[in-house]
Design goal:
The protein folds into two domains: 30 residues; 126 residues. It is elongated, with a radius of gyration of 23 Å. By secondary structure, it is an alpha+beta fold. It has two helices and seven strands.
Length: 160
């Protein structure tokens, strides 16, 4: 009688250990990123502070857009360029060229239902914006036009 009970206990213990190990292994993996995405954590301390300063300036710019037009600058030294639905704020700081890209919703398409997060910001009127922050070395040529897809031009998207 003792033999089957011991086997069942050992089997239950093995299943529990396997589930625990799988949970630990999958939660410890780094999030999957696209080839053009890099974590903010690999930036220097001052560059991370620049990233946070850009994020901190976004709500005021988005409020201005909700009540009319985008502001001319996001933060000092980051001027606006706009073409259609694409709005770029471009500047140089902390040894990098920085780009904040807003993509406005296409008025011909219904509203998007994405959750609000670092890349999806909701305007006061209910429209969803796509927002991303990109960097590139200062050695690259400064873009002269509005950038719609920065990855195709050698930019790296910075993600938390």
């Amino acid at each position: 009688m003792k033999q089957p009970a011991v086997r069942w206990i050992l089997l239950a213990l093995a299943v529990w250990l396997g589930a625990w190990a799988f949970t630990k292994w999958t939660s410890a993996r780094a999030p999957e990123r696209a080839d053009w995405q890099r974590p903010v954590s690999e930036l220097s301390e001052t560059q991370r502070a620049q990233f946070e300063a850009l994020h901190a300036a976004m709500p005021a710019a988005e409020r201005a857009r909700s009540s009319g037009a985008w502001p001319e600058t996001l933060v000092p030294g980051f001027a606006r360029k706009q073409q259609g639905l694409y709005v770029n704020y471009l500047g140089e700081a902390e040894g990098l060229r920085w780009l904040v890209l807003y993509v406005e919703p296409d008025p011909r398409v219904g509203s998007e239902s994405a959750a609000v997060d670092d890349e999806h910001h909701l305007l006061a009127d209910g429209r969803m914006l796509h927002v991303s922050v990109w960097t590139q070395p200062l050695s690259e040529a400064t873009p002269q036009n509005v950038t719609a897809w920065p990855a195709a031009e050698g930019w790296l998207q910075r993600v938390r």
